[in-house]
From TrEMBL:
The name this protein goes by in its record: Carbohydrate ABC transporter, N-acetylglucosamine/diacetylchitobiose-binding protein
Compartments in which it is found: Cell envelope
Signal peptide positions on this chain: 1-32
InterPro entries per the UniProt record, alphabetical: Bact_solute-bd_prot1, Chitin_NgcE, SBP, TAT_signal
One Pfam assignment: SBP_bac_1
Keywords assigned: Signal, Transport
A single GO cellular-component term on record: cell envelope
Superkingdom field: Bacteria
Species annotation: Wenjunlia tyrosinilytica
PANTHER family documented for this protein: ARABINOSE-BINDING PROTEIN-RELATED (PTHR43649), SN-GLYCEROL-3-PHOSPHATE-BINDING PERIPLASMIC PROTEIN UGPB (PTHR43649:SF31)
Main localization of the protein described in the UniProt heading: other
Keyword hit for Signal: yes
Length: 460
């Protein structure tokens, strides 16, 4: 996700994707027929230190989604590229990926590297179908900068390759290792004597207590239902287990008629039915709701681990941001400590990039310890590089909290891939959840809509 999308989304990111799905598909159809020979004519010498044969002095065109992680980290990476290859980099930080890049794709002159995230992300599955993505297998097989005896694929966190793959090949590098779940203020909980809940019944009991104390128990980024689906889909996963997650990713429509989905969506609806939502939260943007949360107007909010960096300006110094795994329903197949964790924030190299070799090398530089450490310091988040943050890097409370819950989770992690492989289905689920939280539909109708969306997506 990021500022508007999941990485992570958006992050991810992935959030309001229904607003951009149709235009994205339309312009990419045009992109597929865009002409022009964009391969850079200059070639360097292929060596172990220059596996893609980047030409000395070759410039690099970089476009970064300027969301929750900002874009300062990318400027640091660009300096590393410039130092090695003596080529100038051009940099654009934007939240309008589709708007800024549509004309360039249409004329057959896309950038060399794109952080393809945000609410106006270009859908990865659509890009893949139109042949717009470079195969990143050469990156995976290239030497790891800090230890050339290893390949890049050997130093990535589990699930990184799968998250960016279509038909068995990786086409996007999901760079940020994100955790998703609930967030609360350590200061508020300490001042009020609240205990972070581990079960759903304890969670609801605490919500009742919080409301009596004059605070809204829960808020969410209502304009972008991607966020409430963090709670919805995590609860379903923990209730149904890993096989259930696989069935959802495979677009099996029968899961939506079974107990795990039914009990989970009914549990989430309780927050609405019992009046535990912050008034107005259903119409708020991510920044509006998160700022209200920072102002102690609500106790819990769902988000990914980009939240801390995104809210730096509005978070009080003593707020003590904390991460909480989604509490479990009775009979859950995964323990409370289990969390959704995985690679997000997709970086791509367009197939028609002028300096495709430089784009691949930029991604390789990103996966060095130096770059990974720079990202942690600038963006307050972890990367997909194993042990990518040294002990010399001081983390903020929220980020340190995610490190701790990752250790506690151990092997009990899960993630969904359907937002990347079935974006229309993802949009339908988000839309249904937005309607549910606004109390315009009830759980039975939510299940009906999601099942129909899965059936439609399954048919192709």
């Amino acid at each position: 996700m990021g500022s508007d999308f999941n990485r992570r989304d958006l992050i991810k990111r992935a959030v309001a994707v229904g607003l951009v799905a149709a235009p994205a598909a339309g312009f990419l159809s045009a992109c597929a027929s865009g002409g022009g020979d964009n391969e850079s004519s200059a070639k360097g010498k292929k060596t172990k230190d220059n596996p893609f044969a980047v030409a000395n002095g070759a410039g690099l065109d970089v476009v970064i989604f300027k969301g929750g992680y900002g874009d300062d980290y990318a400027r640091a990476f660009e300096k590393l590229y410039e130092k090695k290859y003596k080529g100038k980099t051009s940099h654009l930080g934007t939240q309008d990926i589709t708007g800024k890049l549509q004309p360039r794709f249409n004329t057959g002159s896309p950038p060399d590297v794109i952080d393809d995230s945000g609410a106006k992300q270009i859908k990865l599955d659509v890009l893949h179908k139109n042949g717009q993505l470079a195969d990143l297998t050469p990156l995976l097989d290239a030497p790891y900068i800090d230890d050339p005896s290893k390949k890049v694929r050997d130093v990535l966190q589990p699930g990184t390759i799968e998250t960016g793959s279509f038909d068995g090949k990786m086409y996007s590098l999901s760079y940020v290792y994100t955790v998703w779940g609930l967030w609360y203020s350590g200061k508020l909980f300490k001042d009020k004597g609240y205990t972070p809940p581990k079960t759903w019944s304890d969670f609801m009991a605490l919500c009742k207590e919080i409301k009596k104390d004059g605070t809204a128990p829960f808020c969410h980024q209502g304009k972008y239902p991607y966020y409430i689906n963090i709670l919805v889909m995590d609860l379903i996963a923990k209730t149904g287990g890993l096989e259930y997650v696989k069935r959802i990713d495979s677009l099996d429509p029968t899961v939506w008629g079974e107990g795990a989905a039914k009990s989970s969506i009914e549990a989430v609806y309780e927050l609405v039915d019992k009046g535990y939502l912050l008034p107005g939260t259903n119409g708020m943007t991510h920044i509006e709701s998160q700022t209200a949360w920072n102002e102690y107007k609500a106790a819990f909010i769902p988000s990914g681990s980009w939240l801390e960096n995104e809210q730096l300006k509005s978070t009080p110094q003593d707020f003590d941001m904390k991460f909480l795994p989604v509490p479990t329903l009775d009979g859950a197949k995964l323990p409370f400590e289990a969390i959704r964790a995985g690679a997000g924030e997709p970086f791509i190299v367009p197939e028609k990039a002028k300096n495709k070799a430089g784009g691949l090398e930029f991604l390789r530089i990103m996966l060095s310890k130096e770059a990974s450490g720079k990202f942690a310091q600038a963006a307050n988040s972890l990367t997909v590089l194993k042990d990518g943050v040294g002990s010399d890097v001081k983390l903020r409370p929220g980020t340190q909290s995610t490190v701790e819950v990752l250790k506690a989770a151990g092997t009990n992690t899960f993630n969904y891939n359907y937002p990347n492989t079935a974006s229309e289905f993802d949009t339908a689920v988000q839309n249904a959840s937005g309607e549910l939280m606004a109390k315009r539909i009830k759980p039975a109708e939510w299940l009906k809509r999601v099942k129909a969306a899965a059936e439609k997506a399954k048919k192709g």
